[in-house]
Give the backbone structure.
Amino acid sequence: MSALHDEYAERIRRLGVRYEAAWVPEVRAGGRYSNDHVRERESRALLEARDGGAGLIALDRGGLAMTTEDLASRIETWLTPRGEIVIGGPLGLHAILLDAADHRWSLSPLTFPHELVRVIVAEQLYRALTLSRRLPYHK
């Protein structure tokens, strides 16, 4: 799946959009940490790793569910001048990060593996960018 993500990342870059993927270490659930504590630690690490001044888009199943056309109408605004899309761990994001987010985006009410979400997000960003720029791909 990493190769597929990288393919879409490169396509996005060819459109002149800066695209980088980074991550913070996952905090393992169970043992001495409660699920809420794990979410909080991961969310704090994600907030600390942010590039200051960028808009924050949090992936959250309670966020805004959109069609490709909806995303295309928002994407340039969300990413201008810079935007960061944050994917939480298996337990999701904590309220401290969700409250700090400028936007919440829901891919689905389902739970997906992190690696698959990276591919879906990159592909959807590319699809929305091509649609908003009237380039062939989205159909």
Notes: DSSP finds five helices and three strands in the chain. The domain at 2-20+54-132 is CATH 3.40.1280.10 (Alpha/beta knot).
